[in-house]
């Protein structure tokens, strides 16, 4: 378990570093093509993207819960079984008690949201509560609490800022390029090559940024699996839960791409992480997650 946790943390760090290097390189390319701009566009893009993310950072949990149709928060009197499961795991993990919400949906899924452990919520579908046994549901809740404990929501917010900055840079460059296409004709062959490479890179940069973001999201799922298994000391519980979630494979009624990365499994069903689609999936293949859980000792 500890090796798996260290490996997942290391891979996330590498991906984050790659993201930062990529955005700096993108800024450098624009600076080379348009020297008079310097690094101004990159700074502006980061500031705009950061400003757009602040609302999501402070109100994102409420937006996510509303989008999922979650009801609550519940108290111990509303559902003592779920409340005590979460409470006991929080005591074990040494984390504050999150707010608990129930999603009236027959699909089997769950997610955690909130910018830090003091402002966190856990949402469970009615289907997952009714469809899983005690140890399996405990594994799912432990997974979600691990997301909270590892500040995964905050990490993904940083990633969203970087993706937004790259998208703004790309748009800014392309608009500037068309405005300047008739105003400058110098640079020779080297300048022409640099221009072509720059245009291709800028066009592809939003796709590259999105792929890096999704890769980070998948690594955080592996990390939450490992940390959740460490919390319960029973990896088989979460492995069996993932098997049942996969076999159920019912897309959530209110599934949407904006909140898909929050859920323990893709809200669009198992097919969303199969074949070529897994490159553009927020979740790793369930079969691989189950295999890693059962290899832990």
Descriptive notes:
- The protein is built from 9 helices and 3 strands.
- It has a 3-stranded mixed sheet with strand order 1-3-2, sandwiched between helices.
- It has one domain (2-295).
- The chain has helices at residues 2-33, 40-68, 80-93, 126-131, 134-149, 152-180, 188-232, 235-248, 286-295, and strands at 99-103, 110-114, 120-125.
- The protein starts with a helix and ends with a helix.
- The longest helix has 45 residues, at 188-232.
- Strand 2 (110-114) and strand 3 (120-125) form a beta hairpin.
- Residues 181-186 have low confidence and may be disordered.
- Helix 6 (152-180) runs antiparallel to helix 7.
- The protein is elongated, with a radius of gyration of 22 Å.
- It is mostly helical.
- Helices cover 66% and strands 5% of the residues.
Strand content bin: 5-15%
How much is the average pLDDT?
80
Number of helices: 9
Distance between the termini: 6 Å
Order of helices and strands: HHHEEEHHHHHH
What is the total number of structural domains?
Answer: 1
Q: Strand count, sense and closure of the main sheet?
A: 3 strands, mixed
User: Nearest-angstrom radius of gyration?
Assistant: 22 Å
Present the secondary structure layout:
Elements: H1 2-33, H2 40-68, H3 80-93, E1 99-103, E2 110-114, E3 120-125, H4 126-131, H5 134-149, H6 152-180, H7 188-232, H8 235-248, H9 286-295
Parallel strand pairs: 1-3
Antiparallel strand pairs: 2-3
Helix pairs in contact: 1-6, 1-7, 2-6, 3-5, 5-7, 5-8, 6-7, 7-8, 8-9
